[in-house]
Amino acid sequence: MNIAVASGKGGTGKTTVATNLALSLGNVQFIDCDVEEPNANIFLKAKINESEDVNVNYPNIIKNKCNYCGKCSEFCAYNAIAVVPSKVLVFPELCHSCLGCELVCPNDAIDWSNRSVGKIQHGQVNNIDFYQGVLNVGEIQAIPVIKSLKKRIKRDKNVIIDAPPGTSCPVIESINESGYCILVTEPTPFGFHDLKLAIEVVRHLKIQFGVIINRDGIGDNRVELYCQNENIPVLLKIPERKRIAYLYSKGISLVNESHEWHEMFGSVFDKIMQEVNK
Ligand code: SF4
Ligand code: SF4
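A: This is the predicted complex of the input protein with iron/sulfur cluster.
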């Protein structure tokens, strides 16, 4: 079972849910796809023992073959190539490595260089096989790092994916092959608004999903009523408690604090399996 944990916005407790679920289950693969700010390992505490660069291609212009016809620049949807009368300018950080410019070049004047956009780190903790993607500082190409992470997924294991926040391309790339998606939200007007956007995405991708309400007790009951009306399962409500905020600030998982939390997150997995097998 491949379960993605996502949220319409950051700071809703997505990583809390993903890490506690993994720790309660054990024997899972954990993939932290929140590559701009991977923080699951603060809670999991896996010992990182492997690191591998993620490289992407960008075009190199072979000057003595180029006649500055401009076809590469016309083709590039990302404005990564500009052709001026006697020069071709390449902007590697804008290039999405689609290789299309090489296809349209009539003079075979393009070959390839590569650059690092981030890295994949791997480690183990207890029986959790942990992977995280780390985007280089200032880098905008999150997708290649997420794609590279997903190549590590083992089909014969339960997998927990900690998706980036929001509803943009990196989220879709992270969750699009999951069998189930947990959407974490807060019972506030902002939380409700962003939850509805996230629901649109998972419905569009045809991924079965349920909701976990974090900080239950603040705000109002709009999220819960909406879920009731839309027949969306609420898998768990995590109450607003000072103790939980304290544990979070110290990097301590809820399931390590009490057996009660261990059972509650274990029951989330059971509910998901019931939903999937309905
Ligand atoms: S398409 Fe090829 S020949 Fe034309 S400007 Fe680009 S690199 Fe040069
Ligand atoms: S590989 Fe694609 S994105 Fe990159 S410069 Fe060529 S056409 Fe543009």
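The chain is about 35% helix and 30% strand. The first helix runs from residue 14 to 25.
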